[in-house]
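User: Predict the complex with zinc ion.
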Amino acid sequence: MTVRLAPSILAADHARLADEVARVLAGGADQIHVDVMDGRFVPNLTFGAPVVRALRRVTDAPLDCHLMVEHPETYIGPFADAGATILTIHPEATDHLERHLAEIRRRGMKAGAAINPATPLSAVEEVVAELDLLLVMSVNPGFGGQPFWEPAVAKVARARALLDARGSRALLEVDGGVARETIGRLAAAGADTFVAGNAVFGAADPAAEIRELRRLAEAGAAGRKAG
Ligand code: DX5
Ligand code: ZN
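Assistant: Here is the predicted structure with zinc ion placed in the model:
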């Protein structure tokens, strides 16, 4: 299993976004997580496709866009045009998840589905074949820096079993409260892609933090193989 670390720019200095992104990429980040919020699906507002377009001008790195918005299908075109690499939408925010995942792929992006803590895995069970990424939320989305929702560890293990049973090669991403204390257990449960906002951007040395998170995740994943 290859561990992927995705720092969330929600926790970065938004006045210096290009520098912050360059710094974590130089420090070993695999992709940049972009938290898009509409003030309706979640009680917070952030940024949209124009920021993705601006980031795309300064980096070739994968832009992992997490849409926490109602009717995310409205934004598939704008994010594709802006240069998003992965577009992840919530089944709770839309009807016709399958159609929208297909449209995301048709527009040349990788298709992701994200589920809130209260949403059962069955919400994505019928569309596993359409997924390039499954995101298990380990906080209720809306804000960075929230306490980790502990049942996410067992949910990740069930998600891994679901993907494996279907022969899916989708990335299994976890988002919210990922830090030194939690990442090893999440990797041991079968996650391979880790969003980290405050853990990375709040660290005195983000590059060192990325190295340490990767080390702990790899150790957790190795334990999983051994077990
Ligand atoms: C939560 C967002 C997360 C957030 C994670 O609504 O989806 O991506 O940035 O922040 P931390 O890692 O600080 O919990
Ligand atoms: Zn996110």
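Residues 36 and 149 are 21 Å apart (CA to CA).
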